[in-house]
Design goal:
binds magnesium ion; single chain; binds adenosine-5'-triphosphate; alpha/beta; Rossmann fold; five-stranded parallel sheet
């Protein structure tokens, strides 16, 4: 059994995941005993895979290739970082985790969810988040934020129907698993979002 607390943060591009993480990093409660990480990424191999995944040079990538690369990076991340840190009793907060595969590769790219469930049996196993914070905001607002921040990668180039499918899959998963998900209104200020998330994480930490 793991001793720590595993938290993932999800939402479409521009929802405010990285902004929330930056605020959490500065918060007094998370200065020690907390590891901040991200997917795809979190280890040298996983970060190298991330570069392949997000590169605009790879706009012709097969959806299945994308999925397998994400799970290859997740295998590295879970075994080398997430599980050891949880075993050491840490809070692990990840900018995206496996719900993003369902949202993007199943929702956005129409891959069969049964394939993802099989990959979860092999790769994720029992290392699932205790809490998943889903930041939700209107798609156009999120896309406007991304455009004003500056498009950064291959996923930022996708169209609004793609993000509608992604957000809809996120919502379906949250509705099916209300005990794990906290849905946060991403139109609130970063400070309001921070307060809600800090209270929730700390309430679980005490259990
Ligand atoms: N609650 C908020 N209110 C107003 N602006 C916000 C809020 N959260 C984030 N932003 C702004 O929106 C932009 C995108 O935010 P951020 O980079 O945190 O999104 P993200 O979810 O991490 O996106 P990505 O998936 O592309 O990494 C940034 O310029 C950020 O300053
Ligand atoms: Mg981000």
């Amino acid at each position: 059994m793991t001793k720590g607390l595993f938290v993932s943060i999800e939402g479409i591009e521009g929802a405010g995941k990285s902004t929330l993480i930056e605020h959490l990093k500065k918060h007094a409660q998370f200065q020690s005993d907390t590891l901040f990480t991200r997917e795809p990424g979190g280890t040298p191999i996983a970060e190298a895979i991330r570069k392949i995944l997000v590169s605009r040079e790879h706009s012709d990538m097969e959806a299945m290739t994308e999925l397998l690369l994400v799970y290859a990076s997740r295998q590295e991340h879970i075994r080398k970082v997430i599980e050891p840190e949880l075993s050491a009793g840490k809070i692990v907060i990840s900018d995206r985790f496996y719900d993003a595969s369902y949202a993007y590769q199943a929702g956005g790219r129409h891959l069969d969810v049964d394939i993802l469930a099989k990959l979860d049996d092999w790769v994720v196993q029992k290392t699932t988040p205790r809490l998943t914070i889903l930041i939700k905001a209107p798609i156009q607002l999120c896309l406007d934020r991304v455009y004003s921040r500056g498009n950064q990668d291959r996923f930022d180039d996708e169209s609004s129907p793609f993000f509608m499918a992604v957000q809809s899959m996120y919502t379906q998963r949250a509705d099916r698993d209300p005990d794990r998900f906290l849905i946060v209104d991403g139109t609130q200020s970063p400070d309001e979002i921070l307060d809600i998330c800090v209270s929730k994480i700390l309430s679980l930490r005490k259990l």
